[in-house]
Each structure stands twice: as structure tokens, then as C-alpha cells.
Amino acid sequence: MRLIKPRLLVGIVIVSIFSVLGLLVPLFAPEDPTAWNTYFRNLPPSAEHIMGTNNLGQDIFWLLTWSIRNSLWIGLGVSAAATVIGVLVGIFSGFVGGITDRVLTLLMDVVIAVPSLPILILISALLGGKSSLWIIAGVLVVFNWPWPGRQARAMALSLREREFINVAGASGENTLKIIVWEILPFMLGWALANFINTILVAISAESGLAIIGLASLKDATLGTMIYWAMQHQALLLEKWLWILSPILSIMLLFIGLFLVSTGWSDYFATRRGRQ
Predict the structure, then answer these.
(1) CA dist., res. 191 & res. 84, Å (int)
(2) Fewest Cβ atoms closer than 10 Å to its Cβ: which of 10, 97, 98, 120?
(3) Residues 231-254: pLDDT tens digits?
(4) What angle separates helix 146-159 from helix 184-211, to the nearest 10 degrees?
(5) What is the reported pTM?
């Protein structure tokens, strides 16, 4: 327990709260939170509506939990796919070497060199701002897997020279088995930190597109919640909870994920140093 820093604990608490709000609480929503004109408009906070209702006749609290849920799913899905693909490709590239390594490294460098945001904006513009969350998530995966791939390759190049790898090869283990059972366990701590960082990238990218109206506006996310609040003059109507709740949620979620990522990296580095 002495290796665990306070910021890691604080980050875990914040992320846990958002996980409950986004993954469990929406299951108890009395109505579809995204439907318009479900309730009377612009009601103040009360026992029935904890955060009141907005100009679209939606309960702000339930809409917020639904938005957190979708944003979390985007972040988790993109991060899981990008991390798994990147780590496996990077390990394979670094361990096998030769022409395979050169081709895969060139592919990773090419993808890294292409900026993802202009591509996302172009796709969204071509689709008239109606691109689905699946399309956005797919593009984010394509442009985010090379980053962990590059780092995994560098670690694999170092690990393949270790004695236990030579012993495993001499004992007749094939390449796939060596990668999965011998090399991959050494990267799990680093992969978790990269996984958390990619969640931040995915959520921020989708939120940024939604705020400027280029994401799937029919799906409730933290970004689309801000977009509709701005479109319906939430500030002029003094509906502070409508527009501030998603903004503060994004800020707190990012802080929590950042604390978990940096705290886990320090914990993993300290633990390896004591082994």
C-alpha cells in the first residue's frame, strides 16, 4: 500500500463516481432521457427533477447520466481496440524484426504523420454532421493504434535480447506463444496507462466535434449536450445546470483519468524498481 500515491486513490474515486453515474444510474431512468418534450420546459430543480428540466423538455440529471454513459462507451471502446491492436502489432514487429518490422514501422509512422482531426472534420462535413458514433469511433481507432504500437515495438526490441526469451525459443516455443506468454506480461502495466490516456483522447475528440455540430447530434454525449445547450441559449435563459454540468463533468472526468494514468505509471515504475 505504501507504493500507492494519494493522487492514484483520488483518481480512482473520481473515475468510480463517473462509472456509477454513467454505467449504472441510467438503467433506472424513468423515461427516455433523450426524448424531447417529455416534461414541462425550464422547470427549476426539485425533488422530482434534481437538476430541473431544459428548454427541450428533458430532465437534465437523467440526460447528463445518459451523456456520460455514451461518452464513456466511446472512450472505452476506442481505447480498448487501439491499445490491443497497437500493442500486439508493436510486439510482433519488434520481436520478428527484418522486413516485417520495417514495413510495420513505416505503416505506423505514416498513420502517425496524418492528423486525425481534419479527417474527422472532413468525414463529418461530407455526412452533413450526421456521422454515427460508430464511424467516429472507427476513425479514432485507426489513428490511435500506432502510438502504443511504436512504444510496444521499442520495448519488444529490448526484451527479445533477454536470456529468458532465448531459453523459450530454444525450448521450441513458437513466436505467438513467446509474444503472449513471455513478452506481453511485461507490458501490461504500461498498456493500462496507455489505455487510460487513449480514453481521454477519444472523449475529447468526440466532444470537440459535437460542440461544433459535426458529430452525431441525435446521440446524447457530453459534447452534444453542450451543443444543444448553446443552440437554445442556455446562458441567456440562465439554465446554468444545463450547460455547466457537462462542462464540469468533462473537466472532472479528465482530471480523474489523468490522476489514475500518472499515478498508475508511478506505481508500476516504483514496483518494477523494487523487484
Answers:
(1) 9
(2) 98
(3) 888 888 888 899 999 999 999 999
(4) 170
(5) 0.85
